[in-house]
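Hi there, hope your week has been kind to you so far. For a while now I've been wondering how a particular protein folds. I'm sending you its amino acid sequence along with the backbone structure tokens. Could you read through the record and tell me how the tokens relate to the sequence? Take your time with it, there's no hurry, and the full record follows here.
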Amino acid sequence: MDLFNSVFFAKASFIGVIFLITLGVAAYSTYFERKIAAFMQDRIGPDRAGPFGILQPLADAVKMFMKEDFIPANSNKWLFIMGPCLSMLTALMTSAVVPFGDTITIGDATFDLQGIDVNIGILWVFGIVSLGVYGILIGGWASNNKYSLLGAIRAASQNISYELAMGLSIIAILMMTGSLSTKAIVEAQQNGHWNILYQPMGFIIFLICAFAECNRTPFDLPECETELIGGYHTEYSSMKLGFYLFAEYINMFISGAVMATLYFGGYDYPGVDFVTAQLGATAATLIGAGALIGKALAFVFIFMWVRWTLPRFRYDQLMGLGWSGLIPLAMFNVVVTGLGILLDQQILIGIGGVVVFIAGIVVYDQLFVKKKLA
């Protein structure tokens, strides 16, 4: 019973720490996004709340809590409340299967730096991410607002189309690793054998799909303010709106952690064996956890950078890219991966992937873009 209590306490404490880190990253992502936007637009950005404006997220939180919590009279009140709660819940649950490190030893007990280590970790991620769209759908429909409903429908169709390409891009990694476990995928990439070397095209496809899954520019059609006022959360205020906004930033961070896990070695980093020999396994594991969080934050920066760089797609362009562009490329990537495994020449997978990606762009340009211009 003492062992059970110690394991349960350690797991609960670790999950609590991950939740706090995730919420902290989500809160300060709003600050850094405004600073990055200001830099790219030659402005100053927030600089009044504390030194360099670092207390701006706290001011925003107080503002959200102090706003009037308004519920439209003709809305479905229970579903109106459930929508943002479901979005927030699913965003936080996704991090449960991400391995943030190997093992650490405290006293006589050894613990994994992972919430739950299940042999279907990738399916867990896709299952929870798929549920997240229901929060948007429920919120948009329950608002009894046509603009909100249009935003919710856009989110559903967008997620369905891009989840197909995302799933196909991951199949290539599963073929190479032979496991659905996120821990096994990371362990297969140790000592610098990162999947990005063998699956560059799969990574590009996954990254593009992650933008669509997180509803980030240039794929932010569900909340396109120039067409739908505010999209699916038009009628929301106070912390209900805050939950939707928080869920978006949490999804960005978790998407970065998943991409780091699948393609960039997870908690692996250069010199891990040297650090283990000099400082011990526990210190090396904690540094690896920091490396994974750093990789995830790098992807968060990419999300922000692209938002203030590329214009928004039209809806038909968005769906055309998903169905006519990314899905065929992902299927070709699976075929090339299978051929490389059959020939036992995995480095050819990466080279073949790049060739297929370039060929796909050329074919798409010849068959679709120039045809429309003509």
About this structure: The two ends are 74 Å apart (CA to CA).
